[in-house]
Amino acid sequence: MTLDEIKALIDAMSTSDLVEVEINKDGWTLRLTRDAGNSAFTPSTGEARARPPAAPARPESSPRESASSVESTGSTTDVSAPLSGVVYLGPSPDAPPFVAVGQKVTSGTTLCTVEAMKMFNPVTAERDGVVEAVFVSTGDEVAAGQPLLRIV
């Protein structure tokens, strides 16, 4: 399987509602999943394959909670990455950032986006407050649960 064929499969998957696809070709198996960290390219010869441990099951959360992970301590809220990917603090390279330190935000304000599999996932404020700190820069790779910003 060539790199161009693999890229074409990734592009096709990103434009569809598929969650997982597995292709067998030339003695190799390619499995793509939307769950970051669980995709694997492994030979079909039965060799053991290294795969990160599955994330522990989380209790169901409301749709607002799934938009971003929030850890609140009193009047301070750390907004964390909802998934692994690349963080962008602005809508485009030429545009100013969504928010800046010292800026007042309201619930629902877009703080940044996290790109995963060519999908841009907005990270929004869960409450009104003021941006106290930004812990990442545009283009940084972030892990799910990693703190991105602090709102007070």
Automatic annotation (TrEMBL):
Gene3D superfamilies: 2.40.50.100. Pathway: Lipid metabolism; fatty acid biosynthesis. It holds the Pfam family Biotin_lipoyl. Residues 57-72 have a biased composition (Low complexity). Keywords: Biotin, Fatty acid biosynthesis, Fatty acid metabolism, Lipid biosynthesis, Lipid metabolism, Plasmid. Residues 70-152 form the Lipoyl-binding domain. Signal peptide: none annotated. Residues 36-85 are annotated as: Disordered. This protein is a component of the acetyl coenzyme A carboxylase complex; first, biotin carboxylase catalyzes the carboxylation of the carrier protein and then the transcarboxylase transfers the carboxyl group to form malonyl-CoA. PANTHER family: OXALOACETATE DECARBOXYLASE ALPHA CHAIN (PTHR45266:SF3). This is Biotin carboxyl carrier protein of acetyl-CoA carboxylase. The lineage of its organism: Bacteria, Pseudomonadati, Pseudomonadota, Alphaproteobacteria, Hyphomicrobiales.
